[in-house]
Design goal:
By secondary structure, the protein is an alpha/beta fold. It folds into two domains: 180 residues, D-Maltodextrin-Binding Protein, domain 2; 140 residues, D-Maltodextrin-Binding Protein, domain 2 (3-Layer(aba) Sandwich), CATH 3.40.190.170. 51% of the residues lie in helices and 16% in strands. It has 13 helices and eleven strands. The strands form two sheets. The protein has a six-stranded mixed β-sheet with strand order 7-6-8-5-9-11. The protein has a five-stranded mixed β-sheet with strand order 2-1-3-10-4, sandwiched between helices. Strand 1, helix 2 and strand 2 form a beta-alpha-beta unit.
Length: 336
């Protein structure tokens, strides 16, 4: 009898120990760290979106997701981040659509010049069937999740040589362009001399005069202090875009159903918050650049630029096929 009781107690202790170990393992698995990276400073438009996402993701997950903000290319450069997401070595990263395109050409539908009539058109497309199709197809083709498009922005043109009052003034300017075929073709069509250059090399190239200028999101020009080296700001509204937050499948697969729902809800709400922020700030920052930033701002007649851009649109639609052309047509229809 004594031996039987002893065996029962031993079994109970062992079972309790195994159960306890299981509980510890499950508790550990429930706590997830998400490293969210981007290339610009913490106090930037990406930082605004990241901080709101961090707040909401931690709140909606009940604290089981710990979002770590990794600004300033700490965990990857924007040029390398998409491949890192595919490999699963980076959890999440902001990548502008032009830096997604070399890995997934369908994203060029959001890169084409003068694709959007205004910021409201851009937001409508992102939140509608085209945006859903982009998310689904990106995931199917590459394994990368698009959590939110973020807020809309324009890429404004700047240079250190001269004011731009017409397309003829673009001639001969060495303009930094991301390694994106659409953007290279666009600045060639505008008459400039585009120089494909990684983002990490751009600030030094501008300071040393290796390039005459470039184009970036309006807020980025201020955040990176490009106004100190290029005194001519040109408003063309040629490229409109987003601040997309992308996540690796490896990270998303680590989440429970509840955590995944929390991440997606946080991304949606942070994106809406960021959209309101961006819609308010575009003209405010342009005014700041042309006053406190000391830049001379011009707004050339856009008609010749639009005519040149339409040829670029047609060329890439023909090259990328019917599915791409259908997306272009859907974007144009959304403006009606």
């Amino acid at each position: 009898m004594r031996n039987t009781i002893s065996r029962l107690l031993t079994g109970a202790v062992l079972a309790a120990g195994l159960a306890g170990a299981g509980l510890i393992e499950r508790a550990a698995a429930a706590d997830v760290t998400m490293n969210l990276g981007w290339a610009t400073p913490l106090e930037s438009t990406y930082g605004d979106l990241a901080k709101k996402f961090e707040e909401l993701a931690e709140q909606y997950s009940g604290g089981s997701i710990d979002v770590k903000l990794r600004c300033c290319a700490q965990i990857a450069t924007e040029d390398d981040a998409f491949k890192a997401l595919q490999l699963g070595t980076v959890d999440a990263y902001f990548i502008s659509q032009n830096n997604v395109s070399p890995h997934w050409p369908m994203m060029d539908v959001f890169v084409l010049p003068y694709m959007f009539q205004n910021a409201d058109h851009l937001v409508k497309v992102a939140n509608g069937p085209v945006g859903d199709k982009i998310r689904d197809k990106l995931k199917a083709d590459t394994g990368v999740h698009l959590l939110t498009f973020g807020g809309p922005s324009y890429r404004d043109f700047f240079n250190s040589k001269r004011p731009i009052n017409s397309m003829e003034d673009m001639a001969g300017l060495k303009i930094r362009v991301p390694k994106n075929k659409v953007m290279l073709a666009t600045f060639e069509a505008f008459g400039a001399e585009p120089v494909p250059l990684a983002w990490s090399e751009t600030p030094t190239a501008l300071q040393t005069g290796t390039i005459d200028g470039g184009d970036n999101g309006t807020s980025v020009i201020r955040e990176m202090k490009f106004f100190e080296f290029a005194k001519h700001l040109v408003i063309l509204d040629h490229f409109a875009g987003f601040a997309p937050v992308l996540a690796s499948d490896r990270f998303m697969s680590r989440l429970s159903d509840e955590q995944r729902e929390a991440v997606l809800k946080a991304a949606t709400e942070a994106g809406a918050y960021h959209t309101e922020l961006k819609l308010k700030e575009i003209e405010e920052i342009r005014t700041w650049l042309s006053t406190e930033g000391g830049m001379a701002m011009t707004r050339p007649d856009r008609a010749p630029f639009i005519a040149a851009a339409q040829k670029v649109q047609q060329s890439f639609a023909a090259e990328l096929g019917q599915e791409f052309t259908d997306l272009v047509n859907a974007i144009q229809a959304a403006a009606e």
